[in-house]
Amino acid sequence: MGSDDETRVEWREWGQDAFDEAATADRPVLLSLTATWCDHCHEMDAETYAEPRIAANVNDSFVPVRVDVDRRPRVRDRYNMGGFPSTVFLAPDGSVLTGAGYLGPDGMRQVLDSVRTMWDTKGSGAGRIPRPLREDNPPAGALTGDIESAMLGQLTETYDETAGGWGDNPKFPLPDALEFSLKRDREMALRSFDAVSANLFDEYDGGFYRFATERDWSGLQHEKLLDSNGALVRAFANAYLHTGKDEYRTPAARTVEFLTTTLWNDDVDAFANSQAPGETEAHGLDPTDREAADEPPVDEVVLAGPNALAIEGLLTYAAYTDDERARRYAERALETLRTDLIGAAEGTDEDRGIVAHAHPETVDRTTAALLLANQARTLSALTTAASTLDPAVLSTARAVADATIDRLHDDDSFVDGPAAGAGLLERQLRPLDSNVALAEALLELAVLTGENEYREFARETLEAFAGASDRFGVQIAQYATAVSRLLEGPLVIAVADDVGSDLHRAALRLADHEKVVVPGAAAADSYDSLPAGTARVELGERESATAETPTELSEAVQSVLE
Fold it and tell me: Where do the segments described as Disordered lie (predicted)?
């Protein structure tokens, strides 16, 4: 993110002070949404905001505010103009006057003049509230098998037979769609996995680039973000689980290496947020020349949600492969998450179960607090850890779930954060993706704890959006996955044995990535009849005989599925 010296603009921090200044001076706010990994953001700083006359115009006629979208995602979600940079002009009450994306010097001059004319003519009356912030709650509906069928139909209809993946352009990897289709149309899924690996995977350094601008996967955007890489480790690990093929294991393994080296923040034992593209031309060099090129910069900030995705990805990969490196780094990051970023899991502290957005030692300014996305991703990481690593983390998982329900539950679903803050932050959003992620995590928590209350919250949340489910795009394939798991099962493997035993490891490796493995089940009231050293498989009302060996367990799964 450009500094004041680089841009010549006198940037203010996001906050009520900036809006009060705008009201007192009777000026619009110029809100610049940027990210450290965003090449076009740095380019706009160098070419537009650094131009002296433009900077003087901005400083004299506007109140300029700079926001890093990773550090303040609620601001991003309200004012994003479709990508970054976003250049947004606001009235002092936070309403939107107009907005654009990247603006070169000529475009910026025209927009500044236009906004000043608009302001002089209409003032705050020209402001508008973005539609998602003024719509009623989404239409509720019944959960049926048609939701899963409709999503599969969406994926089939938008599938790119030529280039792989879904849609025209831009092309994103869509890990949730990859995982949904893996169980329901494996050929389509694997061809899309192959396209993502062939086009977005960095063969030299490991890790996946963020997206490609064109339908044929050309126009690569070379930034690497922790959240998408963590999600893709899990997706490719699940493809390996279903196929046993190294062509899916290898990208996952190389991405684990990238995350645990390039993106590892050793100062706080967790993962850094992103790596910028660096010199774009360097990505086309041969290995020898690329080794001599400057290493692209890394944003060392440690954010809870992306770390939770990385932890889940690494634990999933380790569960299928016994990879010690993946397990060890996941454990370290999980300990940091539990110790430094989650409010005390025991006691009555008001912060109990609240997930902080950023590790305090890695930020130099205030960041967001109590975000639904962080709560959901953290809960999912904790349920995965309870299933694969240590059931004792369920106490923390309960605390996170309970805090989310207590603080963010509203009208049968969840809002994105508290109704507080500058600009339009007092207006809450009801984000579908975070609601779905939380519902799935609550469903898994219900299975792991035997506490049906969490399942009912998951059901209510999914029902709250079901009336619009026929319009959901492939980006929200996880909704159909969650509905399917709620209605049909999920497949549950209760293992009355220790974590890491042969029986537990075999349960994790049975080829259904949507299953829930409950280790140490003999200690749970709901499995008190399960003899120690055995396992049982459940799917809905169906239940297998007890199994004592991995072979018997595999047979038990087949008996339930038939």
Answer: 123-145, 276-295, 540-562
